Amino acid sequence: MTEPSFLTAVRESYDTVAAEYVKRVPPPAEMDPLSRAMLAGFAELVRTAGLGPVADMGCGPGRITAHLAGLGVSAFGVDLSPKMIGLARDAYPDLRFTEGSMTALETGNGELGGILAWYSTHHTPPQWLPAVFAEFHRTLAPGGFLLWGDYVGNERLQPTHGYGLPVSYESHLLPLGDMAGLLGQAGLVVTARLEQEPGGRANRPRACLLARKPEA
Predict the structure, then answer these.
(1) Which pLDDT does position 1 carry in this prediction?
(2) pLDDT given for residue 203 in this prediction
(3) Do residues 115 and 139 make contact, with C-beta atoms less than 8 angstroms apart?
(4) Residues 75, 147: contact at Cβ < 8 Å?
(5) Buried b (16+ CB within 10 A) or exposed e, 117-153
(6) In whole angstroms, how far apart are CA 110 and each of 4, 51, 133, 181?
(7) How many CA atoms lie less than 13 Å away from 97 in the CB half-sphere?
(8) Among 27, 34, 146, 150, which is most buried by a count of CB atoms within 10 Å?
(9) 83 and 14 in contact (C-beta within 8 Å)?
């Protein structure tokens, strides 16, 4: 089966920028307080439910995966980029990191207590999001949680450079209501949302959605 072109572009681009990404993107300790609070709340919900591990989708160099582990959650990372996975394994050898795509996860039905999609879905064309969220629903245990966070808006970005280096990926920003609707169509129930206006390092609106897979 031929790989969708957007996946190839994302993989090649993040392989190119991996080392520079680590230098330029701040670690979790330097996140804004609201984002850290959402991650902490998500970790507590997953830990209390005790339904299985958390998959950090689009984990990059593994910093957020390690942050979740530090919050007492069993977590592993998944990323398209072999270079990113290599950096994550080198930095956090005690954690598990695997190459993979959110469009077709190598995880069994209902195996996950939680999924984190942290600034990792905006490279996915909107027509592919139903397939991605269907995979999230499939792999989550009944009662499991999803925390989604990303930029929101109504535009398609086609940068030629990222982190100072050439890239070929695109970014697709959708309104928050559209994202919540897509999660609902996949069978996930949104239980909380956070919207943040541009400020600090972020020059675009951002949002988080907490959702849960129904127990029945």
Answers:
(1) 62
(2) 82
(3) yes
(4) no
(5) bbbbbbbbeeebbeebbbbbbbbbbebbbbbbbbbbb
(6) 26, 9, 14, 22
(7) 27
(8) 146
(9) yes
Query: Which is nearest to 59 in space by CA: 7, 121, 120?
Result: 120
Dig out the tokens for 156 from the structure: 């398609």
First to last CA, the chain: 34
User: Is residue 42 within 8 Å of residue 114, measured between CB atoms?
Assistant: yes
Bridge partners of residue 140, in order along the sequence: 112
| Distance in angstroms (rounded) separating the CA atoms of residues 71 and 73 | 6
The pLDDT of residue 202 is 72
Of 29, 84, 31, the C-alpha closest to 56 is 84
Q: Quote the CA–CA distance of 64 and 84 in Å, as a whole number.
A: 13
What is the rounded distance in angstroms from the CA atom of residue 99 to the CA atom of residue 79? 5
Q: pLDDT tens across 50-60, in order? A: 999 999 999 99
Q: Furthest-apart CA pair in the chain: how many Å?
A: 48
Q: Which amino acid is at 194?
A: L
Quick one: tokens of 180?
A: 């919540």
> What pTM did the predictor assign?
0.96
What is the per-residue pLDDT across 179-202, written as a single tens digit (0 to 9) for each? 999 999 999 999 999 999 987 777
Residues of the chain with pLDDT under 50: none
Please state, in angstroms and rounded to a whole number, the distance separating the CA atoms of residues 45 and 61.
24
Integer CA distances (angstroms), 91 to 30, 64, 65, in order = 18, 12, 11
Distance of CA 195 to the CA centre of its chain: 17
Tell me if 179 sits within 8 A of 105, measured CB to CB.
no
Strands (E), 163-205: 165-166, 171-173, 189-196
